[in-house]
């Protein structure tokens, strides 16, 4: 029976190959859908943060009016997007479609990879990680939404209104615009996975709540550095990114403490028996 149930190394590789193929196939399906609807996606999703009628700018202006000021109203975004390469628009169409495909297929793609990893865990580990796909997906979508609706508009507003001299026009290349937007959105989606990473590190015994509390200040510096990397040199935008990550770090400490406490109880029960 053991020989029938146990899989060899090559069998595991074959199974992993099929999981990866299904994950990539799902991304490809959404990418094709995005490619077919390219005009709509570029106009209403990708290029939207570069227009003053974007929902974030409207909400900022409404907030500003509520406090009796117009300081937060974005009146203009003085830049134009140009394409300077023969294959530029086609390449960006493909790149944008692939990114959209990755974002929308992420829940299924992660589920496929998790299906391969989960059987290798012990029974109690499988029980502890129940709902992993749901929480990873929720955090990823929260990060993507935060990057798209909060960080990207603030970054675009700062960069397009920044001028060394009034005679210099901001004529931004399409590749630069799409790459910057994609980097911000995907980076935020990844950074929001911090609680999940801490959870697994805590389960592996590599991180303890006391360790995270001791190096809280160091973590804060790292958060500020990462925020500076994925955002323009604008303190306001950097703080908008750093604040939720700091909150997630504090939440991760509590999560780590809960995991650590549970592991100590389990160890005491084992020693007691």
Automatic annotation (TrEMBL):
Keywords: Cell membrane, Membrane, Protein transport, Translocation, Transmembrane, Transmembrane helix, Transport
Topology term for the membrane: Multi-pass membrane protein
UniProt-annotated location(s): Cell membrane; Membrane
UniProt xrefs under Pfam families: TatC
GO BP, sorted A to Z: intracellular protein transmembrane transport; protein transport by the Tat complex
One GO MF term attached to the UniProt entry: proton motive force dependent protein transmembrane transporter activity
GO cellular component annotations of the record: TAT protein transport complex
InterPro entries: TatC (IPR002033)
Transmembrane residue ranges: 20-42, 63-81, 93-111, 132-156, 176-202, 214-230, 236-257
Protein family according to the UniProt entry: Belongs to the TatC family.
General function of this protein: Part of the twin-arginine translocation (Tat) system that transports large folded proteins containing a characteristic twin-arginine motif in their signal peptide across membranes.
NCBIfam families, sorted: tatC
HAMAP family: TatC
Subunit structure: Forms a complex with TatA.
Protein name: Sec-independent protein translocase protein TatC
Organism from which the protein derives: Sediminitomix flava
Gene label: tatC
């Amino acid at each position: 029976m053991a020989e029938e149930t146990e899989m060899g190394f090559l069998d595991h590789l074959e199974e992993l190959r099929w999981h990866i193929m299904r994950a990539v196939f799902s991304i490809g399906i959404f990418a094709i859908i995005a490619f077919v609807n390219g005009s709509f996606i570029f106009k209403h999703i990708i290029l939207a943060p570069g227009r003053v009628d974007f929902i974030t700018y409207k909400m900022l202006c409404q907030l500003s009016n509520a406090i009796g000021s117009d300081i937060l109203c974005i009146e203009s975004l003085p830049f134009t997007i140009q394409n300077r390469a023969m294959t530029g628009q086609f390449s960006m169409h493909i790149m944008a479609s692939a990114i959209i495909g990755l974002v929308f297929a992420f829940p299924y793609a992660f589920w496929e990879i998790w299906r391969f990893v989960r059987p290798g865990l012990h029974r109690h580990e499988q029980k502890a990680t129940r709902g992993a796909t749901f929480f990873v997906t929720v955090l990823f979508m929260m990060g993507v939404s935060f990057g798209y609706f909060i960080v990207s508009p603030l970054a675009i507003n700062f960069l397009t209104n920044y001028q060394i001299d009034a005679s210099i026009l901001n004529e931004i290349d399409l590749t630069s615009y799409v790459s910057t937007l994609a980097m911000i959105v995907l980076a935020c989606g990844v950074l929001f996975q911090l609680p999940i990473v801490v959870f697994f590190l805590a389960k592996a015994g590599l991180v303890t709540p006391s360790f995270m509390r001791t190096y809280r200040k160091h973590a804060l510096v790292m958060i500020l550095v990462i925020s500076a990397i994925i955002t323009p040199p604008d303190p306001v935008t950097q703080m908008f990114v750093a604040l939720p990550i700091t909150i997630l770090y504090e939440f991760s400490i509590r999560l780590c403490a809960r995991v650590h406490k549970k592991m100590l109880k389990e160890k005491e029960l084992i020693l007691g028996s």
